[in-house]
Amino acid sequence: MPIYDYACKKCGHTFQRIEKISEHGSKRVKCPECKSTRVEQVFGSIFVKTSRKS
Question: I need a surface site. Which of 2, 3, 41, 53 has the fewest CB within 10 A?
């Protein structure tokens, strides 16, 4: 399951959540610190491992 990064607009806390792809975007995410729903997704870098050498 993918790990998504979030940042709270109210208190500034950043956190990660493990969500199913089907679940992502369908539920309102709450900040674990202040319980606010003013949360936005933060896009970071990704790591992809393939079987071929590039």
Answer: 53
Q: How is the chain split into domains, by residue range? A: 3-42
| Short-list 51, 52, 54, 44, CA closest to 4 | 44
pLDDT at residue 2 is higher than 90: no
Give the whole-angstrom CA distance, residue 48 versus residue 11.
32
What does the pLDDT look like over 22-49, one tens digit per residue? 888 888 999 999 999 999 999 877 777 7
> What is the pLDDT at residue 38?
97
Does residue 36 contact residue 10 with C-beta atoms inside 8 Å?
yes
Domain 3-42 class, CATH top level: mainly beta
pTM: 0.74
